[in-house]
Write a structure and sequence with these properties.
The complex is a heterodimer of chains A (148) and B (224). Chain A has 148 residues and is α/β, with parallel strands linked by helices. Chain A is built from four helices and four strands, in the order βαβαβαβα. Chain A has helices at 16-25, 47-55, 76-94, 111-147, and strands at residues 7-12, 34-39, 60-65, 101-105. A four-stranded parallel β-sheet of chain A has the order 2-1-3-4, with helices on both faces. Chain B has 224 residues and is an alpha/beta fold. Chain B is 29% helix and 21% strand. A four-stranded parallel β-sheet of chain B has the order 3-2-4-5, sandwiched between helices. A three-stranded antiparallel β-sheet of chain B has the order 1-6-7. The longest helix of chain B has 17 residues, at 39-55. Classes of the chains: A alpha/beta (148), B alpha/beta (224). The A-B interface holds A 47-48, 51-52, 54-55, 90-91, 93-96 and B 8-10, 40, 43-44, 47-48, 50-52, 54-56.
Chain lengths: 148, 224
């Protein structure tokens, strides 16, 4: 894991994706390591899609969805909420911190909020990566100590 | 259908880590419908094993495959046969029947169960399944207005209810379990057949259930 984490953002076309676009239009800075995947609805987020992202090298996955009551498809965001919660449990089972997955409600008009959430999440993943690296080093030192 | 749910991940991973290459084998029938062991669940479990192996520095190659049914020999075709032979072990996401039949079809293969098989049940709503049949071998639903006391009464009482029925609920789990005999009474009342419940149902011959040993059905007329 490098200092700059790989972050995948699954964004609903009707809200978070438009918000990300708006953030750019408003010239709001957010970390460049975020890779946005546009989905027709956050309800398209599947548990295995999230697991696959981690398997393919993502350090963190964020899901951008419409606010409750604001889903273009009525309740896709509520379904996404349940799937993200389930995926967090699956990640915990395999030993990946569920903190590496987060869902945010971001309306299309909230460009600055997208930039803020993207920055916060990136900081969180950097922190988790640093903790994981420190832990790995500790284990390696203990192993080399036992060997000598 | 047969209703099952996935075993805790650690238990399944403990099977996988004994081998260098495993095949996660799904079943496209009952366990697909109850969302425990179909193609989608195979993908999730396979990816979980891959991620866990990466996190724990184990080396496990994971293959995936799903067949229509693991309880029918004809569906163990050439493609799945090749994958089973290429793998060191199979993690079957079929029910208990599927796991055993996979072993019977591939006698050399090591086959582990990834599911806990629960019961014969119905889909109450998406994500909720409930027991409806005990497979007792001698169906008497005709006597009880179509509500089975063998499967749905905690005591399997044929002449109920017992004293544990309260406000239509069973004392075993008053929060979640209806008293089967309350359901039978309500149903028979609606059908205008209440007086039939005064008949004493004679003791059932349980030899048709598992008490008579493992069961088998043979139909000479349809054999090839």
């Amino acid at each position: 894991m490098t200092d700059e984490p790989n972050i995948i953002a699954f964004c609903c076309h009707y809200c978070a994706f438009t918000a990300a676009d708006l953030a750019g239009t408003m010239r709001r800075q957010y970390p460049t390591n975020i890779r946005i995947v546009r989905l027709p609805c956050s309800g398209k987020v599947d548990v295995n899609l999230i697991l696959q992202a981690f398997l393919d090298g993502a350090d963190g996955v964020m899901v951008g969805a419409c606010e409750p009551g604001g889903c273009h498809f009525i309740q896709g965001n509520l379904r996404a909420r349940k799937r993200v919660d389930y995926a967090k449990r699956l990640l915990a089972e395999v030993g990946i911190s569920p903190e590496r997955l987060e869902m945010y409600y971001i309306a299309a008009s909230q460009g600055p909020l997208f930039a803020q959430r993207a920055t916060e999440f990136t900081e969180r993943i950097k922190q988790l990566n640093a903790e994981a690296a420190a832990q790995a080093e500790e284990v390696a030192q203990e192993a080399s100590g036992e060997a000598t | 259908m047969i209703v099952a749910e996935r075993k805790p991940f650690d238990e399944v991973y403990d099977f996988a880590r004994r081998h260098a290459k495993v095949l996660v084998l799904g079943c496209g029938t009952c366990v697909t419908v109850c969302m425990a062991g179909g193609e989608k669940e195979v993908g999730i479990l396979a990816n979980q094993i891959r991620l866990a192996a990466r996190e724990r520095h184990d080396t496990i190659e994971v293959a995936e495959h799903t067949i229509e049914r693991q309880c029918d020999r004809e569906f163990f075709d050439e493609a799945v046969s090749r994958k089973i032979h290429e793998a060191d072990a199979v993690i079957s996401m079929g029910c208990g029947v599927g796991v055993q039949y996979c072993v019977e079809c591939f006698t050399e293969a090591i086959v582990y169960p990834a599911l806990n098989t629960k019961f014969f049940g119905a889909t109450i709503e998406q994500g909720e399944w409930a027991e409806r049949c005990g497979g007792c071998g001698e169906c008497r639903l005709d006597l009880f207005g179509g509500v089975c006391p063998v499967a749905r009464c905690s005591k399997h009482l044929l002449n109920g209810p017992c004293g544990g029925s309260s406000d239509g609920k069973c004392e075993v789990d008053p929060e979640n379990t209806d008293c089967a005999w309350q359901l039978i009474y309500d149903r028979m009342e609606r059908l205008g057949r209440l007086e039939e419940l005064e008949d004493v149902i004679p003791a059932k011959d349980w030899r048709s259930d598992r008490d008579g040993g493992p069961r088998k059905v043979t139909r000479e007329d349809v054999k090839l």
